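Appendix B. One record, verbatim.
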Amino acid sequence: MATPKKITITGGAGNIAYSMAWRIASGAVYGPNTPVDLSLLEIPTAVRAAEGVAMELQDSAFPMLRNISVTDNAEKAFNGANAAFLVGAKPRSKGEERSDLLAANGKIFGPQGRALNNSAADDIRILVVGNPANTNALIAQHAAPDIPAERFTAMMRLDHNRALGLLAAKIGVLTTEISQLVVWGNHSITQFPDLTYATVDGRSVLELVDQEWINTEFIPQVAQRGADIIAARGLSSAASAAYAAVDHMHDWIHGSKGWVSAAIPSPGVYGIPEGIFVGLPTIARNGKWEVIEGLEISPEQRQRINANILELQEERAAVAHLLS
């Protein structure tokens, strides 16, 4: 039997964690033959609810789910963790400025970064799901100086999947028939779902859809999809976010079949300053995210990418006191 892997989920009583835990327990991260120890981290007032999640997981009798623990202690939750999904975050309140939200989440992700630094396994892989995900990842990464920066990522896979789904419906193909789509930038309204390089069976997507649809429908719909879901069902995305998070971690470990969008620390490509967490065209290979380099960038693409750079730099400036 394979060596057991420990996976930690923060915000363990929340809707995203609830949707995620069953996929993880079924082997969707490390594979169906690898035993899993699952740790749920919650704030003290939500520990009892997380214990209910643990009961349901136990009742599901997953063959490879070896152990489930629930705690409000980050050091304990991350102790020996091989993979961590940082889901729990403070949501934006009505009338709250983005800078206030960033500062509030700094009080969550800074301590979690330090706990990861102190207790996680050497092969730890970290995916920040809780928003503002890109800058929350930056905060956590800076709080963990002993963990290589490339072991921190933020989730753009949900935006990538949203783009695939909308495009597939528009042109009448399966999502698996679409290749080389990318979502650049920040997991925010500025994000740039880019079809410039996308193909369907070797044919450019730009031959199948018109530019007006891309600019007036596709890009805004992908960027605003989260708000549209809240307006429709009264709740934020949960199952789709959970599905995307598990896909991201699975591909990171086992490799992706092609291009996927992931927010990683910028290596300084495409005019993007080093260090900020930014969505890039990547491929997962040999346990690492590799940037697709050498793509030609048009003036229109540059304008949209630069809008994301500006926003991410502003966010970094807002939490600069947490990064020293």
